[in-house]
């Protein structure tokens, strides 16, 4: 399934936030949206998921405008995880994840064994099965984020739109989550678009980067083609040095911030800016 936006203008009241001439998410690809705070990343993702009505233009799924789809049918094909969702009071983790099955249940159909299998799978995939009986309100920020992701996975949609899914997660859980999403994309042909703050994580996992600034897409393409020092300076006002690593058979660019004093000449014998110095251990 293809998600396609044309002549898109997004606004809050009279204030225009995002303008995109055309954007197409190809089936089976993983796209990361990057850019500075307040540049319109979350607003764009909300519109692509049908959660924000455009001031102009439209978003279509397989050529059909999102408002023309019946909500339950659309939810079987398109799942959105916003940045700060709210859970009902007193709900357990398993009940929350179970809400992801709602689009697949008819008017009179009850929760069945097939639903339980998918809920179990989603909780195991996000490593929260041991928390399933806990009240959602007692979880840590990272545990809550994984529970929300499990609910989104339980929806079993073809397209996932995830707004900062690594928020509140420590480094280890961030890596686990991103590896899981990349595996789902490869093995099940899912189309995934997500907002990430870390340009290095985005470069490592994405097939395509959308770089935004001031409500516009300023760069669009594979990480190896568009990530360089000029991009990080344009987006974040940050000078960086690029290094390259092989990740899963791909050459991936990583950005290392340069210190503010990088232009200052160093005395003879000192390392040049951007180089790594390892001092020997001192022993008593």
Largest sheet: 6 strands, mixed
Number of helices: 9
- Give the rounded overall mean pLDDT: 89
| Anisotropy-based shape | globular
Proportion of helical residues: 25-40%
Secondary-structure element pattern, one letter each: EEEHEEHEHHHEHEHEEHHEE
Distance separating the two termini: 65 Å
Low-confidence stretches: 264-284
Number of strands: 12
How is the largest sheet built, in terms of strand order? 6-7-8-3-9-10
The class by helix and strand makeup works out as: alpha/beta
Q: Work out the radius of gyration.
A: 21 Å
Proportion of beta-strand residues = 25-35%
In oligomeric terms, what are we looking at?
A: single chain
Provide structural commentary:
The protein has helices at residues 41-48, 71-77, 93-98, 113-125, 141-154, 171-188, 199-205, 223-226, 229-236; strands spanning 3-12, 15-25, 30-34, 56-61, 64-65, 78-81, 159-163, 191-195, 208-213, 216-221, 240-247, 250-257. The chain has 284 residues and is α/β, with parallel strands linked by helices. It contains nine helices and twelve strands. The strands form three sheets. Strands 6-7-8-3-9-10 form a six-stranded mixed beta sheet, sandwiched between helices. A four-stranded antiparallel beta sheet has the order 2-1-4-5, with helices on one face. It is globular. It is 30% helix and 27% strand. Helix 4 crosses helix 5. The termini are far apart.
């Amino acid at each position: 399934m293809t998600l396609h936006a044309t002549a898109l203008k997004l606004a809050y009241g009279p204030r225009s936030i995002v303008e995109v001439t055309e954007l197409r998410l190809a089936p089976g690809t993983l796209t990361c949206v990057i850019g500075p705070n307040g540049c319109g990343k979350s607003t764009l993702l909300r519109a692509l998921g049908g959660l924000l009505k455009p001031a102009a233009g439209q978003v279509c799924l397989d050529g059909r405008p999102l408002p023309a789809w019946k909500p339950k049918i659309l939810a079987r094909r398109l799942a959105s995880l916003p940045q700060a969702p709210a859970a009902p009071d007193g709900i357990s983790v398993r009940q929350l994840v179970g809400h992801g099955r709602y689009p697949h249940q008819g008017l009179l159909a009850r929760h069945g064994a097939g639903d339980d299998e998918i809920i179990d799978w989603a909780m195991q995939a996000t490593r929260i099965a041991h928390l399933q009986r806990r009240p959602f309100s007692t979880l840590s920020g990272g545990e809550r984020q994984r529970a929300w992701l499990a609910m989104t996975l339980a929806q079993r949609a073809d397209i996932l739109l995830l707004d900062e899914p690594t928020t509140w997660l420590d480094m280890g859980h961030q890596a686990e989550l991103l590896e899981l999403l990349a595996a789902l994309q490869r093995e099940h042909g899912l189309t995934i678009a997500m907002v990430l703050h870390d340009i290095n994580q985005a470069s490592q996992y994405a097939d395509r980067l959308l770089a935004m600034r001031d409500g516009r897409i300023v760069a669009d393409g594979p990480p190896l083609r568009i990530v360089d020092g000029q991009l990080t300076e344009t987006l974040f006002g940050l000078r960086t040095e690029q290094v390259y690593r092989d990740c899963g058979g791909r050459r991936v660019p990583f950005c290392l911030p340069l210190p503010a004093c990088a232009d200052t000449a160093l005395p003879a014998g000192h390392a040049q800016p951007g180089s790594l110095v390892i001092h020997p251990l001192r022993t008593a």
